[in-house]
Amino acid sequence: MNLEFEPGKNIAMKIPAHEYENTVRFYREVLRFKEITGSNADDTPKFEFGDKVLWLDCMPGLSQSEIWLEVVTSDIGKASDYLKEQGCHRRDEIESLPNGFRAFWVSSPSNIIHLVSTSDDT
Question: What is the pLDDT, as a whole number, of residue 42?
Answer without folding.
Answer: 87
